[in-house]
Write a structure and sequence with these properties.
single chain; mainly alpha; DNA polymerase, domain 1; hpI Integrase, Chain A; 3 domains; three-stranded antiparallel β-sheet; globular
C-alpha cells in the first residue's frame, strides 16, 4: 500500500508497478486511512453471532484498551447478563432483555448507580456487536435508573502541580499533564499515535487505530493550547533523541506503550502521596471539564471535546457555572432595559 497527500486529502494505491492507480480515500487523517486499510484487509471475525462466544471475543479485544480492574468488571457484568437472558443470538437481544437484567439487579438490592454502570457496559457491548457486523439489528435502547447526580471529583491546577512534582518518569509526567488539559481517557492517551498529532493546526485526533477503538467508535479532534503544543514538540524531540527514531506512539517506556493498570495505579498512589484522597486517573478528565465550565465554556462545547454521546452526561458539571448563568440574566436585562 502507498499513499500521498494532495489538497489535504490522502490518496491510496495498492499497485506495485510503476504506473500506480491512485484512489481518493476522502480522508484527511492518516491514522484513519491506516485503520480503514486494516479494516478492509483484516480476516473476517469468526461468525460468533451468539452471546456467549461473542463475550469472549469482545473481552479479548478490550483487554488491550482498559486496565485489568475495568476488564474484570466488564467480564462480571457480561457473564451476569448471559446468565439472566441465556445464550441468545445477538440479533434477538432486545429492550425486554435489558429490563430483565435491571429488574434482577434491583431485586438483589444493588445500588441504582452501580446498575447504571452495568447497563452502560452492556450497551457498549451490543453497539460493538452491531458495528462488527455480528448483529443485524441496532443495539436496543437502554433506560437508565434515576439516581441523584453526584458532584464529580476534580482537582485544581495547583493540586495537579503537587502530583507532577512527585512523578519522576518524565514521559508519565507529561501524560498526566496532557490528560488534564485535553480530557482524554486513559485508553485514548496510551494508544495515541504520533500520526494523530497535527502540529500544523495544534490538535490531537482521537480515532480508531490498529487494535484500539474509541468508546463511541467515532473520531473527535481536541485543540491544544499553545503551551501544550510546545511541550508536545519538545517531548517529540526527546523521544527521537532517546530511541534514535520516532516511536509509533506518543507515550512509550523502553519503546513500548504503558499498560493501563500501571498508569492508573501510579497516578492514584502519587496523588495519595501528595495528600489527595479519592483522586484517580479519570479525575483528570473531570478536572478538564470542570476547568472549562468554570470559565464559562458552553456545556455543548465541553460535550464535543469530551466525546460524550449525550448532553445528559455533560450536565453533571452544570453546577460549576453560576457565573455563566448570571451573564445570561444580565444579557436579558440589557434587552429589557436598553441603555439610552
Amino acid at each position: 500500500m502507498r499513499t500521498y497527500k494532495r489538497n489535504g486529502i490522502y490518496y491510496i494505491s495498492f499497485d506495485k508497478g510503476q504506473k500506480a492507480r491512485w484512489s481518493s480515500t476522502g480522508l484527511r487523517n492518516y491514522a484513519e486511512v491506516i485503520h480503514k486499510y486494516k479494516e478492509a484487509t483484516a480476516p473476517q471475525l469468526a461468525p460468533s453471532t451468539h452471546l456467549a462466544p461473542f463475550i469472549e471475543q469482545y473481552l479479548e479485544r478490550l483487554s488491550t484498551q482498559v486496565r485489568s480492574g475495568t476488564l474484570r468488571t466488564y467480564r462480571f457484568v457480561l457473564k451476569e447478563f448471559l446468565s439472566i437472558v441465556g445464550n441468545k443470538p445477538l440479533a434477538s437481544i432486545d429492550a425486554q432483555d435489558i429490563f430483565k437484567f435491571s429488574s434482577s439487579r434491583i431485586k438483589k438490592g444493588i445500588e441504582p448507580s452501580t446498575i447504571n454502570t452495568s447497563l452502560r457496559y452492556i450497551h457498549a457491548f451490543l453497539v460493538r456487536a452491531n458495528q462488527w457486523g455480528l448483529s443485524s439489528t441496532p443495539a436496543p435502547k437502554v433506560e437508565l435508573l434515576r439516581v441523584p447526580l453526584r458532584t464529580p471529583r476534580y482537582i485544581s491546577e495547583t493540586e495537579l502541580a503537587q502530583i507532577l512534582k512527585l512523578v519522576k518518569d518524565r514521559t508519565l509526567n507529561f501524560l498526566f499533564y496532557l490528560s488534564f488539559f485535553t480530557g482524554v481517557r486513559l485508553a485514548e492517551a496510551i494508544n495515541l499515535p504520533w500520526v494523530n498529532v497535527d502540529e500544523e493546526v495544534f490538535q490531537v485526533v482521537i480515532s480508531n487505530y490498529k487494535n484500539f477503538e474509541t468508546k463511541s467508535g467515532r473520531t473527535r479532534q481536541i485543540p491544544l493550547t499553545i503551551k501544550l503544543s510546545t511541550l508536545l514538540k519538545l517531548h517529540k524531540l526527546e523521544c527521537v533523541k532517546k530511541y534514535k527514531r520516532l516511536p509509533e506512539y506518543v507515550f512509550v517506556h523502553s519503546g513500548h506503550r504503558y499498560s493501563p493498570s500501571y498508569v492508573s495505579d501510579t497516578f492514584t498512589k502519587t496523588a495519595r502521596k501528595a495528600g489527595l484522597e479519592g483522586v484517580h486517573f479519570h479525575t483528570l478528565r473531570h478536572s478538564f471539564a470542570s476547568l472549562l465550565v468554570q470559565r464559562g465554556v458552553s456545556l455543548y462545547v465541553v460535550q464535543g471535546l469530551l466525546g460524550h454521546s449525550s448532553i445528559r452526561v455533560t450536565e453533571q458539571y452544570a453546577h460549576l457555572a453560576p457565573s455563566t448563568l448570571r451573564k445570561g440574566i444580565d444579557a436579558l436585562d440589557e434587552v429589557l432595559n436598553p441603555k439610552r
